[in-house]
Amino acid sequence: MIPSPGSPGEGWSRLSPRKLLLDPVKAVGQAVVPVVVALVGISQSDMKYWPLIFPLAVLAPLLLGALPWLTTHYRLSDTQIQVRSGVLNKTTSTAPLDRVRSVDLEASLLHRILGLQKVQVGTGVDDDRITLDALAAADAQALRTTLLRRRAAVEQPVEVADGAEPAAAPPPASPEPAPAVLARIDWSWLRFAPFSLARLVLLAGAVGLLSQVGDNLPIWNEETATSAWEWIAGFALAAVVVVLTVGGLAAWVALSVAGYVVQWWNFLLVREHGSLHLTTGLFTTRSITVEEARVRGVELTEPVLLRIVGGAELSTLATGVENGVTQVLPPCPRGVATSVGEVVLEQPEALTQDLVAHGPKARRRAWFRQLFSAVDVIVVAAAAAWWFDVSWVWVAALAVVLLVVAAAVGEASYRHLGHALAGDHLVAGRGALARIRTVLETDGIIGWVVTQSWWQRRIGLADLTATTAAGAESVLVRDVRLDVAVALADRATPGLLTDFLRSDAEPA
Amino acid sequence: MSDVGGTPVLREPAHQVSPRAVPFWTVSALIGDALLVIGVLVACLLVPGVPGWAWLVVVLVGVLAIAHVVLMPRIRFRVHRWEVTDTAVHTREGWIGRESRIAPISRVQTVDSRQGALMRMFGLASITVTTASAAGPITVDCLDAETARQVVARLTAITAATEDDAT
C-alpha cells in the first residue's frame, strides 16, 4: 500500500492487516514459557487460581498483540517517510529520504507463512531505526526499492563532490546499472561450519537452560545419579569417554552444519543502486541493504580453528547502521573473503599485503601481557591448592601448561600485530587467538588518540587509535613506536597533524 | 611529512589549563581520598578481631592517598595542555600515562561546556568536543571559565560554518 507520490497530503497507510494474526501468535509464543512455568508452579500448590489466571494468560497477549496494528500508521511523501505509533503517547518518527542509509527486510518463519516482512529503515548519524513490522511482502519490497531509488535520485546531484563513484559518464537518467553479484553461497563452504565456534555459545546457553529445567525433573535425583554412575562404571571408563567424545563431536558437526544451512541458505551478496544488498536465511529470511558510500571499511576475521582450515569471515564497517558491523559473508575460504573485501573497498591488496611489524619491544609486551595473566591464574590456583590441600604436582603441571600456552598466544598475538597504509586505507592487524585485520578508509577517520601507559612511555611505544563513526567506532594500532605512530597518522590524514608536528629529536 | 628530515614528533599543545586547576584537583582528590581512608578506617574499627596487618593496609592507603593529593594535581597541571587551531583541536592529558587527542574541526558535532558546583567555586569550566565516534570525545578539563566561554563560542562558530554531516 505505497501511496503514490501525488498524494502527500493525507496518505497514511496501516500495516498489513495480517499483522493481526502475527502479533497475537507471537505474543502467545513469547508468553508460553513463563505462563507454563507459572501454571506448573501454581498447580503444584493450589488449584483455585486456575479460572482466574488461564483467561488472563491467553487473552492478555491477544489484546496486547492487536494494539500495534490499530495505532501504527506510516506514510511516504516526496521528501520523507513518517511513522506514527503509540497508544497514549503518540510518537511520530520522520526521516528525510536523503537520510535513508539502509533498508533491511526481515521475515521470521511466521512472517513468511503469513506473507509478511519487517522493514527497518536506518537513517544517517543516530542509531534509531524506523521499524515497520509488518508489511505484506510485496509492499515491503516495493517500499525498499522506492526508498533506495528515491535516495539515489535525491542524492545524485549533490553527491558529485563526494566522488564515491565517477558519475560523470552516465547522467541521472540511467542511474541503474545491472546488479553485480559479489558472492553467492557455495555449499562446499559447509566444510567450514564445524570450525566456526560462534554457534557453540548458543549451544552452551541451551545446555545451561536444559540443566536448569533438568534440576526440577523427577528423574534427576541423587539415587538415580548414583545408580547411573554405577551402571557406567560397570563398563570400561575409557570406552565411555570415547563414546561421549565421538558423540559430542558428531552432535556438534550436525548442529553446526544445520545452523550454517539455516542461516546462510540462498545467501547472495550483490551491489545495486550504489548499495550492498545481502539476502539469506532458510526459515527467517533477512535482506540487508547498506549504502556503499556509508561503508568505510571492512574487517577480516580468522578465528583460530577456522584459520587452520583456511577459512575466514568478512564484515563491513559502516556508519548509520544499527551496530555498524555487518557480517556480509558466511565462513568461507580466505581467498573469497579477501577478494570480496577488496571489491567492496575498491582497494586491491588491502587485505593481502604484508603488514609492518611493530618490533621486538612490542613482541616483549605481547609476551608479557599473556604471561602476566597466566601468572595470575597460577597464583590463584596455588592459593586454592594450598587451601584445599591438593598436591603441588598438579599446580606445577598447570603452571607449565599455562606458561607454554601463554607464550604461544603471546607470540601469536605479536605476529598478528601490524599496520600499513594501502592507498587511502588504514590497515591494522590485531588479535590473540583470532587474526583480525581491520581496513578503514582514511576519509572515515575523524580523529586520532595517542595513548601511552607508564610502561609504554619507558620503552617509547604507544597505542594509536583512529576514531571513526563506522563499525566499532575506533581502530586500534597497538604498541607501535611513538614516532612511527605519529608518522602513520600524519600520512593517513595529510594536513591534520601538520600544525602539531615538530621535526626534531628532542623527546616530548 | 614523515620523511622530511628526522622523525616527526607530536609537539605539545600551546596552552596550559587554568592555574586554579591545581587547588581544584587537590580539593576534589582530598574529598574522594578522605572518604576512602575514613571508610577503610571505620571498617577496621567496626569489624571485631581484625588482624594486625589490616592496620598496615590502612596506613598504606593513607600514605598513597596523601601522595595522590599532593603529587597528582601538580603533575597533571604540567601535562594537561590544549590548543584549538582553525583546522583541529589538540589536547594532551594524563598524569601517570599520556593521552593525546586530535580531531579535525570539520568533523566536530557538538561542543559542550560543563561546570560542576566545585568547579564554579574555583571559576573553572570544562569543554567537551564530540565527533561522530564514541571513541572520539575530546575534553579540556579546568579551563578558566571566561576562556572556556570564548573557546566554545569560537568552536561553535567554526562548526556552524562547515556543512558536512561529519561522519
Characterise the protein shown here:
- The complex is a heterodimer of chains A (508) and B (167).
- Chain A has 508 residues and is α+β, with helices and mostly antiparallel strands.
- Helix content of chain A is 44%, strand content 26%.
- In chain A, the strands form four sheets. Chain A has a seven-stranded antiparallel β-sheet with strand order 7-6-5-11-10-9-8, with helices on both faces.
- In chain A, α1 packs antiparallel against α2 and α10 packs antiparallel against α11.
- The longest helix of chain A is centred in the last third of the chain and has 30 residues.
- The N and C termini of chain A lie far apart (65 Å).
- The N terminus of chain A is likely disordered.
- With 167 residues, chain B is of the alpha+beta class.
- Chain B has two domains: 62 residues; 81 residues, Pleckstrin-homology domain (PH domain)/Phosphotyrosine-binding domain (PTB) (PH-domain like), CATH 2.30.29.30.
- Chain B is built from four helices and eight strands, in the order ββααββββαββα.
- In chain B, the strands form two sheets. A four-stranded antiparallel β-sheet of chain B has the order 2-3-4-5. Chain B has a three-stranded antiparallel β-sheet with strand order 6-7-8.
- Chain B is elongated and about 70 Å long.
- At the A-B interface, β18, α12, β19, α13 and β21 of A face β1 and β5 of B.
